[in-house]
Every structure is written in structure tokens, then in C-alpha cells.
User: Fold this.
Amino acid sequence: MTVHSVELADTAVGPARRARGWNASLVVGGLIVGLLIVMALLSFVWTPHDPTLVNAAARLQQPSAEYWFGTDKFGRDVFSQIMVGSQTALFVGIVAVGVAALVGVPLGIVGGMGSRWVGETLMRFNDLLLAFPALLLAIMFAAVYGGSTLVAMVAIGIASIPNFARLVRSGTLQVMRTEYVLAARAAGRHPFGIGLRHVLPNVSGLVIVQMSVGFAIAVLAEAALSFLGFGTPPPTPTWGRMLQASQELLWEAPRLAVFPGVAIAVAVLGFNMLGDGLRDYLDPKLEDRR
Amino acid sequence: MLLRLLRRTAVFLASLFVSSIAVFTFMAVLPGDPARVTLGVNASDSAVQQLRDEFGLDRPLVSQYASWVHGLVTFRLGDSYVSNAAIGPQIADRFQVTLWLVVTGMVIAVLIAVPVGTVMAIRHRRLSGVLLSGLSQVGVAVPAFLAGILLITVFAVRLRWLPANGWTPPVVDPGMFLKQLVLPAFSLGIVQGAVLTRYVRSAVLDVLREDYLRTARAKGLRPGQALVRHGLRNAAIPVVTMLALQLATLLIGAVVVERVFVIPGLGSLLLDSVANRDLIMIQDVVMVLVVAVLLVNFLVDLLYIAIDPRLRAGAS
Assistant:
């Protein structure tokens, strides 16, 4: 039985609904994200130079055929650092989005299927979590345990739970109003089975879109955390720490800020566009009701 | 309406209570021994014991929590172990600085987002609307601290129009205060403005499709008049909600931007306290930030009732 194909005629998006198909956001976003993944994977086996190799003779070189993006004040190759930095950005994103989805999706489904009281409690809990943004959580974690990649991932993951829970709950509420759910309930199916067979497949489009957007949020948060020194510790290069190091050299070498800055912005742009594109492509029949 | 008001107030107070428990648990219970964390692993046992006595860390947790909350409510937070300065006045001073940043940033964001978002909505099928959409998409992808660094590079390093960093209180030198406020406030404002623009666009687009706007046009108003008189007020509701949610982002964004521009605000206090392992100060600053966010959300809930007559009527 394929639940995906069930048409929700009464909840379908209105006249603005676009035809299913490829769109510019999906292609551009997908290309950027694809390139990012290739760059991260490639950096495990090859970088033009050793990104952590200190070379006093090659300090603050201009971009050249040898050093594509130039070198920093320790003579380290900027391009190689950007490549390796994508590993951290993606790794933190994968774990943070994973944590947020694993906790947030079940919470949202339970909140949407349970009694009104359960739903309301969940929403209040959500509002409360919103008062603790990723950065604040990470600072609290770092104060107690010190900064690390794990701290960044967990803090960003926890802070992203409300995004998933809220979205999935509103999707679940719509699915629960459909006739096939009514039929399943009348047939005496256990709520757990309804959640797994009917609700989850129908909200999966929403979840996939939110995952892509969640990645963008995670990349931004990771950059801020490593900028402040609460993320992955040195010598592993991260885009945020490269920016932080560039600040004292803005007068001599502003390009040191531009390259990691562009890397962050392009990565975030890519995930956001991919999210937008997926939203149109998957054409979720469930409206995003925020 | 009164019932709604009471319910909102109850939710607000409950949120304050739960979040204070969360912060207390995290900062005072989880570390095991806050005195040991504050002093570091190399401290002597007697020094740790002395700090424990001083902060009453040997008392039951409930009593520690009660005296912390009492301190928060009366704003007598005691002295910092690290700097020996009173915590309350420090937080108050720093909060003023951060408030300047956040409020100016928010005003800039709204001044950008409302006109640009409205134009984007009206022209959403034309090239200009699509280009503006693309531009806002790029703005969303830039974190505030990166915007700050880029603004410094252009306006302080290249053009030398504005100072790269620093902070002067407005009472000391208003001119210098304004000069130093421009770049950090714009770093926050441009980025938040880009995010907000997208919400203004979709809110105005929704309103444009409404029947009452067609009615307003039918009774002889020009499109602009109809939108300003009937549309924007309705579009304001989702936008104000977003604005409130963004305040949390803005407060936290200010933490990083303060670091970029070397501004002695609440964020710098928090980061310095983390560097000094001043757990008690961190606990207080975090709680102040959380209370600020919850308070704004509460005020927005009240504002809804004022903006939307339907909510007023519906609840009673």
C-alpha cells in the first residue's frame, strides 16, 4: 500500500500550486550542496597543501598558481583550509540535523495525534526551547565542559528540535483530519500504527525540506561558535575560526576574511535554495502552517 | 478577553519558572561542583571549600535555588568571585549597551524589510521582484558577524569613514557614540532585515489575495491606498510574530557582533565570564537573556490582542 500517492484534495495548496518538476532553486541549490560534499570528501584524501603546515617563508602570500587563495599569517594554504573546513561544517550539520529530526519528528507526531492537552503542552515546551538559541546553549555547555565539536553539534541539535516539532505537528494535524485516517481509526488500527503507516509518510516531505533548511542553520551556528572559540578546537581548520583569525589582519589582507566568509555564505545559500527547491519539487500537499 | 489575558500571564510565569529551573540545573547542578569548575582542577581543597562556604554550595539545592531566584527578583545578585565586583550593576550597565545595539538593529531591519518586502510582493512576477528576492536570499545566508567584518573592511579600512571598533556611552560623546554605533547596528540590521523581508513579502502576498482588498478597490480606492489602509494592518500580524522570534536571534547575534566590534555589552560579559570560568555570572547573564526573550514573546501576545480585533472578540 502506497500512502504517498493518496491525494489530499481538501488540503491541497491553492491556485498558486506549481507543477511538479525541476526548478532553478533545486538545480542551483543541489549543485552547490553537491560540490560542497565532493569538496569535503576530496579533502580527506587530497588537498593542494597540508592545511596545518606552518611555513614562515610563505606568510601572507597573494593568491597564485601555487596558493590558489593565498596563505595566512602562518603561511598555511587558505584553499586547503577552506576544503578541510567543509568537513567540520557538514559533519556538525549532519549530527545536529539528525538529533533535531530524531527528537523533533516523533514529538511533533505525538503532539498532533495526542489529546489537545498533549499538543498544547508540547507547543509551550517548544516556545520555551526557542528562548534558548543554539549559541546560548553552546555557551552554557562550553562553560561547563569546554568547547568542542560535540558541544557544537549537541547545542545546535537541541536548539533545532522546535523547528521540526512545530512543523511536523501542524502536518500531523492535517493528516489526522483526512478520511483515510478516519477509516483506519474506524477499523480499529492502533494509534502507533496510524502514526507509522499514515502520518509519517505524509509528513516526510516537510521533514526533508526542513532538514535542508536545518543544515543551513547548522552551518551558520557552527561558524558563529567556532568564531567565538566554542567549536572544534585548533589545529583543525574551521571557517569560523579562519574568520576570527582574519580580523586582526583586515588592514593588511582583507581577502583572509573574504574566502571563509564566501564559503559560509555559499554553503548556507546552497542549503536554503535546495530546501526551497525541494519544497516545490515534492509539492507537499500539507501546507506549512506556522 | 480577560480570560485570554490571564491565561497568557499564567503561561508566561510558568515559562519563567521552568526556564529558571533549567538554567539552575544546568549551571549549578550538572557541573557537579561549581566551586571546583570556577577554580580549576589545580586549586587546593581548602580554597574550593572556602568558595563553597562563601556561595553556600553546601546547602540543599532547593535552598540554593530559592536564594538565587530571590536575588534575581530583587536584583541583588551578590559579587562575582572572579572580579569581586557586584554582579547586578555590571549586568545592568552591559544590558544598556546591548539594548542600544539590538533596538537600533531592529529598527534598521524593519526600515529595510517593510518597504522592500512590500515591493517584492507587489512585483513578484516581474524581474525587479525576483531580483530583490534573490538579494534577500543572499542576505539570509550571511551571518551578522561576517556582515560586521565585511562592513569594517569597506567602511573602516578602505574608506576610513567610520571607526572599526570601540564604544563610547552617549552621555560622554554623542557624536562618537553614533559613529561607533553605525557599523555594528547595520551588521545586525541588514541580516535581520533580509530575513524579515521574506516574511513581509509572503504576508503581503497573502493579503493581496484577500477579498476585502478587492472590496476596497471596488469602492474606489487606488491599489496603493487599499493596501496601506486595509492590507498592511493585516499583514502586520505574522510580521510582528516573526519580529518577536527574531529578537532572540538578534540578542544572541549581538553577542557575536559585540565581539567583532569590541563592544562592552552583555555578550562580551558572557564571553569573558566563560573565559574566566565565572559560573555564577554566566548563570545570571544567561537567565537575564532568557527572561528578556520570554518577556518580549509575552508582550507580543498582548500586542496581538491590540492589533487584531478578531482575537479580542473571539476569546470572550
